[in-house]
Amino acid sequence: MIPKNRREKLLSQFDEGALVIISTNPEQYRNGDVHFPFRPHSDFWYLTGFKEPEAVAVFSKDYYTIFLQEKNLEREIWDGERLGVAKAAQTLNANQAYPTNKLKVQLPQLIKEATTLYYDFKPCALDDEIIQCLDGVKTQSLGEHLHEMRLIKDDSEIALMQKAADISVHAHQLAMQQVKADLFEYEIASIFDAEFRKNNTEHAYTPIVAGGGNGCILHYIKNDQVLNNGDLLLIDAGCEVGGYASDITRTFPVNGKFSKAQRQIYQIVLDAQLAAIACIKPGEIVTKAHQVASQIIQQGLIDLGILQTDGYLSQFYMHGTGHWLGLDVHDVGSYRQGKQHRQYEIGMVTTVEPGIYIRKSDKINSIYWDIGIRIEDDVLVTDNGNSVLTKALVKEINDIENLMK
Ligand code: GLY
Ligand code: MN
Ligand code: MN
Description:
CATH architecture of the largest domain: Alpha-Beta Complex
Oligomer: single chain
Number of strands: 21
Bound molecules: glycine, manganese (II) ion
CATH topology of the largest domain: Creatine Amidinohydrolase
CATH class of the largest domain: Alpha Beta
CATH superfamily of the largest domain: Creatinase/methionine aminopeptidase superfamily
Number of domains: 2
Radius of gyration: 24 Å
Strand content: 15-25%
Largest sheet: 6 strands, mixed
Helix content: 25-40%
């Protein structure tokens, strides 16, 4: 669906007098005069398709006005070409376009004509300007409605997600084939940097490349340690295409051969992941995958004597089994409908990512110390169950060992 149709679909849920205001992300300084690479706000990108900073979209059933940066020869010499006001209305399918610095003077009139304003307060400077103009106009959350739309992906969005998945799968395959003892985590991370850039894509999130015990640090991003013979390597990395993320984790032995203890723990995680993926289908409750995965992991750890029957599973498995995936890696959309947990519907995309993380402890046999394993795939809900977008990437023990030979 193109942005125009998305705006129309959104507005079709609202009264005649509804007005939507949405701004993109601000630019962020990294240091001195240096910016982080700009990424539009996902909601704004979804509704406008516009990727420049400093933009605000205002639309109702009758009109669409885009406010954007003016052309500025000097700034464009430094930062690159801007669309500019003159071409914006036609390019972006809007009725009118104005420079962003005209928003403040136009806001009172725009808001005055509305009965309900759909806007998400952030906070930011625009919030204050809007509040000053409200004068009795009701406000409602935009995200509540918009995020329900974003939760269900159409064919064009799924195609982008499949492309992101394919590029990420290939990068993970290269990492499995190229890893060896004494390389550093950042050398393996550079495989992902290169593959993603070669395909004109970007990381959807900061990658985790974690050897040995670092795999037990859930948000390990330093990626600067040496990889030791006999250790596992956990890699959580994915690119985004057209803004749509992939999110993949694989865990494999640095030397290409799982030890007995690694194999035991890995097989529990894999069994949990496969059982959880089987729960992803239309009509199934979204909490089921986590229940099923947790139960398998709990029993597996008890059988190995790692977890006591009255012990806490959260000591070894302390995160959820998945999250929505889309324009944001932890994508928008509620996990509930009213007071109930919601059910999967066709077009939703979720990750499935159980794990086991065993830190050093006198209470645990040392053969299991520093084993951190997560297996993560991206799963689309389809009419006959699900389709794993990342299924091309091996995860059975034998398949991993064969690929690494
Ligand atoms: N890569 C982020 C996550 O798995 O949630
Ligand atoms: Mn994830
Ligand atoms: Mn991940």
